[in-house]
Amino acid sequence: MPIALLIDFGSTYTKVAAVDLNQDRFLGHAQAPSTVDTDVTQGLLRAIHLLREQTGIRDEQVTLRLACSSAAGGLRMAAVGFIGRLTAEAANRAALGAGAKVITVTERKLTGRSTAELEQANPDIILLAGGVDGGNYDVILHNAQQIASSTVRAPVVVAGNAQVTDQVCAIFRSAGQASYGCENVMPALNTLNVEPARKVIQEVFIRHIVKAKGLDRAAKYVGGVVMPTPMAVLRMAELLATGEDGEPGLGDTMVIDIGGATTDVHSAAWGKPTDGHVPAAGLQEPFAKRTVEGDLGLRVSALSLLEAAQRSSPNLPQAIASRLETTEAQSRAEYLAAHTSTLPHTVQEQEMDRAMATAATWMAAERHAGFYAQENGAGPTVLYGKDLTDVRALIGTGGVFAFGSSPFQPLLASLYDRANPFSLRPRAPELYVDSHYVLYAGGLLASVHPGKALRVVKGSLARVPALAPTPD
Q1: What's this model's pTM, rounded to 2 decimal places?
Q2: Mind listing the pLDDT tens digit for each residue in 144-157?
Q3: Do 410 and 280 fall into the same domain?
């Protein structure tokens, strides 16, 4: 039987999954601590060895090998935009949709100070935007000159005013800096066009970043890293929402992905206002949207998660808030941040992981979902962001969902709360847990066999009972 081997080089663990390509079914999953800081192949080979022991698969059966990565800090991106927030926000969304962690967003003309801050940030990729097509071009030309004259050598994706794309790329070419032109991320005011930039960012990731992070050393085992891990999960969320190759989807979908360093939220839904009397404000929302919360991780970011939870304690579920305000929680977070491959063993450790995951889910969903507010603080009520109240499927993925005790409990924290009616979270979705940890694997497989990927993932999701108890 032909088998696909699907690999994720994570910041904490390297994960491998096997899929039977004839029967479109999941065969097994294994993981080992990541070894990106030394030799990335060590953690990979350990995980593959565990997978062989678990499933009995042989090398000669593997006909397809694909990998993604969020290791070594993931894909760190700077977004540089035009006057105001619009173009910068468009660039920011394109970066997030491509699986990047946006470490800085700069608006207006770069100054000596903001250029120095960009140099200090040392991004892997710069997404340079600015001006609608046929509009302002002075800013993007100025910013290109500033970047090309700086110490930043990261490749630049040029996605601004199409009239000057060639001229901007020529500036970088003269400076010996790699650049890639694509369509404008905001060709007209309040109109987003992020998909071309997403595709180019993926190509740049494969061409430049994989080698820079040492992941090319694993090429003989995996055939190459094809995308950042968050991009794989977002692609799978899209497929689950829309369906593919005669396989129906689940309808509008939201995914909570809790990791060691970040908590990502993916939504595959247009998110139009469900109240026909409320207009949408701001930029048009993309169908497939990702937000990433770099302060909400269960290991690398455990301390910042705890701090964020304590700041949000008046709004968090009271049982969770009180649990995370204890000295025990502080000590545990300090230990987890220093020992990132630690797994919970005792009941108390499992409960603490669950409490932290619940807090991360609540805060990440709050930041991702749209909300009702008065325009400019005093005008009519408008929708900012996506109205996700009618989402049909809510899925939890990550180690805490695949291996944790009572994995459904953190998921419940992302649901609509009558006490906070202006936060437009899902009201009554079907709840699923990615118990086999295959969403990233499905996203990888979808780059070659989208229909197979959808059938594999749908067959692997565990349905959560409709009347699951709330966290206590």
Answers
A1: 0.83
A2: 999 999 999 999 99
A3: yes
